[in-house]
């Protein structure tokens, strides 16, 4: 990982991305029930998604709502501190969680950010468009020049 800060001091991280297919906003405790339902319904699908090669996430046994809440609180704290940026992917029509996007420092010397995303199995057709729209968003609105797109 680089010795440089993940984002420049004073950088105001974008807090949304809107398309006709989905809305991204920072993941937080308010998404707990819908987030938990989204990923627990799609464990096999997520594990087969590029960027999740080690098979450790999501956990096959799931999580309690309390443990998932702790995870969401950690992501929200990382966002507030500028250490990482996790976004929930919402259906624009109903507001239900249909996926997540993670922007964290890359462990690779050649990259400055690792970009991972997933969508629910019943929304698999959005996987490619989400990855493409996030890639364009990073280039347009974020301070990174060499993202690791995890095989996308």
Describe this structure in words.
The chain is α+β, with helices and mostly antiparallel strands and 152 residues long. The chain has one domain: 3-Layer(aba) Sandwich (Aminopeptidase). 30% of the residues lie in helices and 19% in strands. It has 4 helices and 6 strands. It has helices at 32-40, 43-47, 65-81, 127-141, and strands at 17-18, 23-26, 85-90, 97-104, 113-119, 147-148. A 6-stranded mixed β-sheet has the order 1-2-3-4-5-6, sandwiched between helices. Helix 4 (127-141) links the parallel strand 5 and strand 6 (147-148). Helix 1 crosses helix 3 (65-81). The longest helix is centred in the middle third of the chain and has 17 residues, at 65-81. The chain is globular and about 35 Å long. The protein starts with 16 loop residues before the first strand and ends with a strand.
Condensed summary:
Helix content is 30%, strand content 19%. Helix 1 (32-40) packs across helix 3.
Which terms summarize this structure?
152 residues; alpha+beta; Aminopeptidase; six-stranded mixed sheet; globular
Low-confidence stretches: none
C-alpha geometry = globular
Structural class: alpha+beta
Count of helices? 4
Task: Give the total of beta strands.
Answer: 6
CATH H-level homologous superfamily name = Gcn5-related N-acetyltransferase (GNAT)
Tally of separate domains: 1
Percent in helix: 25-40%
**How is the main sheet built?**
6 strands, mixed
CATH class: Alpha Beta
Strand content: 15-25%
CATH topology: Aminopeptidase
Spatial ordering of strands, largest sheet: 1-2-3-4-5-6
Averaged pLDDT, please? 93
Order of helices and strands: EEHHHEEEHE
Distance between the termini: 21 Å
Q: CATH architecture, please?
A: 3-Layer(aba) Sandwich
CA radius of gyration is 15 Å
Protein name: N-acetyltransferase
Organism: Zhihengliuella salsuginis
């Amino acid at each position: 990982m680089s010795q440089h800060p993940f984002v420049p001091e004073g950088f105001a991280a974008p807090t949304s991305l809107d398309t006709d297919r989905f809305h991204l906003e920072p993941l937080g405790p308010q998404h707990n029930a819908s987030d938990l339902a989204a990923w627990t319904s799609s464990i096999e699908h997520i594990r087969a998604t590029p960027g999740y090669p080690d098979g450790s996430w999501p956990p096959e046994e799931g999580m309690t709502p309390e443990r998932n809440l702790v995870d969401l609180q950690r992501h929200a704290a990382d966002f507030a501190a500028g250490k990482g940026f996790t976004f929930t992917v919402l259906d624009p029509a109903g507001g239900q969680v249909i996926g997540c996007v993670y922007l964290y420092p890359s462990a690779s010397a050649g990259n400055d950010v690792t970009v991972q995303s997933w969508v629910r199995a019943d929304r698999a057709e959005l996987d490619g468009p989400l990855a493409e729209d996030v890639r364009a968003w990073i280039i347009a609105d974020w301070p990174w020049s060499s993202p690791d797109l995890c095989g996308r």
